[in-house]
Specification:
Elements: H1 7-29, H2 34-38, H3 40-59, H4 73-91, H5 93-100, H6 104-110, H7 114-126, H8 143-158, H9 164-188, H10 212-235
Helix pairs in contact: 1-3, 1-6, 1-7, 1-10, 4-5, 4-10, 6-8, 6-10, 7-8, 8-9, 9-10
């Protein structure tokens, strides 16, 4: 735990992670494939186990010790596995069947979760746990994705005043904003690859529960954009 951190920041981020988990579970439950819907509970259990494993690793200081190691342990045990899983899903036939069965309307609404994430990042900056550049007062504009998500989803899927080409462009823009903050976060962390924010490095992701951000929340949002982009291009929805 980060010392002297207000409890409300921890609670809000834990709740944000739980909501992300439930929204992702809901996306799978609303798959247009009955076979995939039946797999929703096992997937939910697997994700809960993953979150618990990350909690154990973080609380046992696996990520915050020996920061000179390369590659960083957070990357090896926390970030790399979900990235490899995403790649595997896109490369395999069964994986693509799963991807193409997911409702992109629900995925669009999922991005609303980025609003509380950005608020937590701002509060962490105030507590000197991350640099300013990782907030909306710095070079992170990802909160715009969260604010626009319910509006875009409503106008595209409910009112139908915006077409799916607009949704595709929006997904690319939001993906770019996500890549921007992820890059800034990694280059600001106290790892051998650090290039930014030496006066106030990004230490939050090395502590519980904020290690859930790069190991779960970000991969879910990334996966959602990639799924939406594939469906909008390949399936020509």
């Amino acid at each position: 735990m980060i010392q002297n951190l207000p409890t409300y920041i921890v609670i809000i981020f834990i709740l944000t992670t739980v909501v992300t988990l439930l929204l992702f579970f809901g996306i799978i439950r609303n798959s247009d494939s009955e076979k995939m819907r039946k797999k929703s509970k096992p997937i939910l259990i697997g994700l809960i186990i993953w979150l618990m494993a990350q909690m154990v690793l973080t609380l046992n200081h696996i990520y915050s010790e020996n920061l000179s190691a390369f590659p960083p342990k957070l990357f090896i045990f926390g970030i790399l596995p979900p990235l490899l899983l995403i790649i595997l899903l896109f490369l395999t036939k069964r994986g693509r069947e799963f991807i193409d069965s997911l409702p992109i309307k629900n995925i669009a609404y999922l991005n609303t979760i980025r609003i509380p994430v950005e608020l937590v990042l701002y509060w962490l900056f105030i507590q000197k746990a991350i640099p300013e550049l990782m907030t909306f007062e710095g070079r992170n504009f990802d909160i715009l994705s969260g604010i626009s998500a319910p509006i875009v989803a409503y106008l595209v899927f409910t009112k139908r005043t915006l077409n799916h080409n607009f949704l595709l462009i929006w997904n690319f823009i939001c993906l770019g904003l996500l890549v921007n903050i992820v890059t800034s976060a990694l280059l600001s962390a106290p790892f051998p690859i650090q290039k930014l924010a030496f006066e106030q490095p990004n230490i939050a992701i090395l502590h519980f529960p904020f290690s859930w951000l790069p190991t779960f929340v970000v991969p879910v949002v990334l996966f959602g954009h990639l799924v939406s982009i594939r469906q909008l291009i390949i399936k020509k929805i």
